[in-house]
Amino acid sequence: MSALAHVPTGQSAAAPPPSARRGRHRFLPYLLLLPGAAWLLLFFALPLVQLAAASLYDPSGSLSTGYALTFAFGNYPDALAAYWPQFVRSFGYAALALVLALLMGYPLAYAIAQKAGRWKNLLLVCVVAPMFTSFLVRTLAWKTILSDNGWFVGVLRDVHLLAPDGRLLATPFAVVLGLTYNFLPFLVLPLYASLERLDRRLLEAASDLYASPVRAFRRVTLPLSMPGLVAGTLLFFIPASGDYINAELLGTPNEYMIGNVIDSAFLVRLDYPQGAALSFLLMAAMLAVVFVYLRRAGTEEVL
Amino acid sequence: MSARFWRWLADRWVMAVALLVLGYLSLPIVVVAGLSFNRPSSRLSYDFHEFTLDNWRNPCATSDMCDAVVRSVQIGFLATAVSTVLGTLMAFALVRHRFRGRAGINVLIFLPMATPELVMGTSLLALFVAAGVPQGFWTIVIAHVMFCVSFVVVTVKARLAGMDSRLEEAAMDLYASEWQTFRRVTLPLVLPGIVAAALLAFSLSFDDFIITNFNAGTTVTFPMYVWGAAQRGIPPQVNVIGTAMFAIALLLVLASTLRGRRARRAALPVAPAVGGAARRRS
Predict the structure, then answer these.
(1) What is the distance in angstroms between the Cα of A195 and the nearest Cα belonging to chain B?
(2) What number is the ipTM of this complex?
(3) Rounded Cα–Cα distance for residues A31 and A45 (Å)
(4) Backbone phi, then psi, for A69, in 5-degree steps?
(5) Closest of B126, B131, B137, B124 to residue B218, by C-alpha
(6) Which residues form the ABC transmembrane type-1 domain (chain A) (predicted)?
(7) pLDDT at residue number B12
(8) Residue B28, Cβ neighbours under 10 Å: how many?
(9) Structural domains of chain A, with CATH
(10) Which of A83, A108, A162, B72 is 20 to 30 A distant from A155 in Cα terms?
């Protein structure tokens, strides 16, 4: 099919080459797609419909007595009224972590793409290396690093950045730090991919035309890295705002994010209508953020 | 002078920040490795107390942890096998064929990667409960295949799209049958992509917590075990597993890098034209 496009037209007067045989399968693509598409429809799309239904169940039902679908749209305002602080916190923590991640990730991606030379591959491996080991075990390691008896807290106390009885664990700081750490590679990799393609001669041209380094960065490097920047921030922000592992392991109930609430609605309180309504609100909020962001950033092709 | 000075500073400054950030990224791994040699002072303590080799000598001292690791590996293999086959077939259809409904299929593949895990996990739970399916080992496998397929499609697609289709045309012009062409030319060329996709799928499955948590019933995978143990006190052997995982993954990466380098070196003098063409496309 696509192969035909490469056949030089000058030779097509002769008998068609055997490679033209490829074009005859009309149903083959559908056969190839069928199992995978069926799986995704059955176990990704259909569950979303079921979740939507569950979010409209009569909230007076329970798992043991059964739920009735009464289109109780009131579940949504009720859930939001009860848990809006966790919603705000989720997006606040994720946004804060994103700012930190950008401050750290941009120089890192830039250095690997433009300055690392033959060390490029080694540094890239270092970026993904944290993902080689378990997410939860890594997050627990921060409990050791930020521990009240650890050297890090000790140093901060000695230089009076932290009160003698001050803590890092079980604070918003620890949760944001954990979020930043856990999702930083997702930001760095697409950013690296964009910056790697950056033609250095453009920067030389900018400086030959008397642009200061800051100006060259703002007018050349930054715009050219936009696709990676947009993809990276989304890949960072979506899992970070839906995460509840960091809040659970590094924080306290005062730091709980919306994920903690949804987890307990489904698995502890067994309040399915509320849990489903919160899940849908999370997805709607996320889609809104993504949509607005993509419009503002003006990049249609993200992935 | 000032322009050159600024550039000198910018060069050093960016690299210095980059190395600091890499340190931040690597610190937890160092800590995990260190803690795997720790004898904690109490069950709930996360601080380094005393050096010991005991954790490495009998990593299965807490037997339910090793059961959980074995279960995670089983689930990982099953989910990888199914999702790699399904995803590879889809990638072939998308790159090699023109058909109606392509846009819809692309959306169906993209959406699971953009949807929060929380939403996928809870919606599957809602479905299984509504359909009366008991949750356990198999519902975890179903869920893992679901979220791995998209990543397999994307990975294999990238490899297929970068492939020089003239090699296949050449085979067919030399009267190789379609099957022979696929078996002898296409498959060997795509295989690295498929292997990479399978490795990615396995690591996604092995490490998944959020979706598994909603669909596991009473089945315990390794991440689920760590989650539960975080409340009761973490056995130090968890860090042995974490360190071993890291070492295995690192070895795999090193091996593939070395193989790739050797293959490139070997290929060059024999078939410079083919190697050149392939590289130009990729």
Answers:
(1) 14
(2) 0.86
(3) 20
(4) -80, 100
(5) B137
(6) 87-293
(7) 83
(8) 23
(9) 88-296 (1.10.3720.10)
(10) A108
Q: CA nearest B158: which of B107, B184, B192? A: B192
pLDDT at A196 over 80: yes
**Distance in Å, alpha carbon of A160 to nearest chain B alpha carbon:** 22
Name the amino acid, one letter, at B31: V
Contacts of A125 (CB under 8 A, 6+ apart): B250, B253
Best mutation site among B1, B15, B25, B227 for testing chain A: the one with the most A CBs within 10 Å?
Answer: B25
Phi, psi of B38 (to 5 degrees): -105, 140
Q: Please give the model's pTM, rounded to 2 decimal places.
A: 0.86
Bridge partners, A69 (sequence order)? A57
Q: Residue A266 and residue B112: Cβ atoms within 8 Å?
A: no
CA angle A246, A252, A256 (to 5 degrees): 65
Give the C-alpha separation, A206 to A193, whole Å: 22
* The two three-digit tokens of residue A127, written as one number: 């970026």
A196: left (phi over 0), alpha (psi -120 to 50) or beta: alpha
Best A144, A187, A261 residue to mutate vs chain B (most B CBs within 10 Å):
A144
CA dist A140 and A65 (Å) reads: 39
Chain B partners within 8 Å of A138 (Cβ): 28-29, 32, 242
Alpha carbon of residue B60 to chain centroid: 25
Instruction: Say if residues B24 and A145 touch (Cβ distance below 8 Å).
Output: no
Residue that has been written with the tokens 């130090």 in this structure: B236
Stretch B113-141: mean pLDDT: 94
Residue type at B64?
D
Mean pLDDT (chain A, rounded): 87
- Separation CA A228–CA B51 (nearest Å): 44
Residues pairing with B38 in the sheet: B51
Phi and psi for A62 in degrees, rounded to 5?
-145, 170
C-alpha span between A225 and A221 (Å, rounded): 6
- pLDDT tens for each residue of B236-278: 999 999 999 999 999 988 888 888 777 777 665 544 444 334 4
Q: Do B146 and A43 touch (CB under 8 A)?
A: yes
* pLDDT one-digit tens code per residue, A143-169: 999 998 888 888 898 888 888 888 899
Q: Residues in chain A, how many?
A: 303
Residue type, B197: A
Residues of B whose CB is below 8 A from A21: 172, 178
- In one-letter notation, the amino acid at residue B167 is L
CA-to-CA dists, residue A294 to A102, A219, A243, A302, angstroms? 18, 20, 22, 9
With beta carbons less than 8 A apart as the criterion, state whether B18 and A107 touch.
Answer: yes
Task: List all residues 6 or more positions away from A18 whose beta carbon is below 8 Å from its beta carbon.
Answer: B172, B173, B175
> Rounded to whole angstroms, how far apart are CA atoms B38 and B32?
10
Chain-centre distance for alpha carbon A263: 19
Give the whole-angstrom CA distance, residue A34 versus residue B93.
10
Q: What is the mean pLDDT of residues A103-125?
A: 91
Burial of B9 (0-12, 13-18, 19+ CB in 10 A): exposed
A249 touches chain B (CB under 8 A): yes
